[in-house]
Design a protein that fits this description.
The protein has 220 residues and is of the alpha/beta class. 41% of the residues lie in helices and 21% in strands. It has 8 helices and 11 strands. A hairpin with a 2-residue loop joins strand 8 and strand 9. The structure holds calcium ion (CA). The site of calcium ion has 5 residues, from loops.
């Protein structure tokens, strides 16, 4: 999943980027509201962590602009302690969840997992497709209970596909959601990841839909 972090405090921004990357996400960061707004409006993000106190353009205004433009990705806002009025304004502006600073990184990761799975219509942290189970809490995948050994990028592809089970996902979509902005993207590598995943998964689980993309689905 690809996550946007909009946070002006450099230490916290770096901690968020490190923790989210370790949790198998592709992460882009912005240090002010103007850049953050632009990135969230033009990029394909599965979730956003948005600080409210930002230079340039404040977080509430950033969020209002996104929602006004029809950007509906899940947004978790970070608020100052005792800032209950900020929470109310943030939720009214379209935030899906909030955390008060200081927070525990594990809680932020859990809340983001919940936002991402709810956006995909999933209630459980364990996503299944036939014999395949992906546990989004620890980034592990099993087939019939046997653990799969996956590289970071293979996991990102598989996690994106299983969050969008039964949907046709184009190669361009996969590229957008598995790489951070600065990464040297090459859509041919997506084919390589798919080919490697197919070797590790039961036949037919990743279907090629000619000219359109891939679909993770239970084979007939
Ligand atoms: Ca701030």
């Amino acid at each position: 999943m690809r996550i946007l972090v909009v946070e002006d405090e450099p230490t916290l921004q770096a901690q968020l980027a490190t923790a989210l990357t370790a949790a198998s996400h592709a992460v882009d960061c912005a240090g002010n509201g103007v850049d953050g707004h632009y990135m969230g409006e033009s990029g394909a993000y599965d979730a956003v962590v948005l600080d409210l106190g930002l230079p340039g353009l404040d977080g509430i205004s950033v969020l209002r602009k996104w929602r006004g433009a029809g950007r509906n990705m899940p947004v978790l806002i970070l608020t100052a302690r005792d800032g209950w009025h900020e929470k109310v304004a943030g939720i009214d502006a379209g935030a899906d969840d909030y955390l008060t600073k200081p927070f525990h990184m594990e809680e932020l990761l859990a809340r983001l997992r919940a936002l991402i799975r709810r956006a995909g219509g999933h209630a459980s942290a364990e996503l299944a497709c036939g014999p395949l189970v992906v546990d989004t809490r620890n980034g592990r995948a099993t087939v019939d209970g046997q653990a799969l050994s996956l590289t970071g990028h293979e996991y990102r592809v598989l996690a994106y596909l299983i969050h969008h089970r039964d949907e046709v996902i184009s190669r361009a979509d996969l590229v957008e959601h598995i790489y951070a902005q600065d990464f040297d993207r090459d859509s041919n590598t997506v084919e390589v990841f798919i080919a490697r995943l197919r070797k590790k998964l039961p036949a037919g689980l990743i279907e090629t839909v000619r000219g359109l993309g891939y679909r993770l689905t239970t084979p007939p």
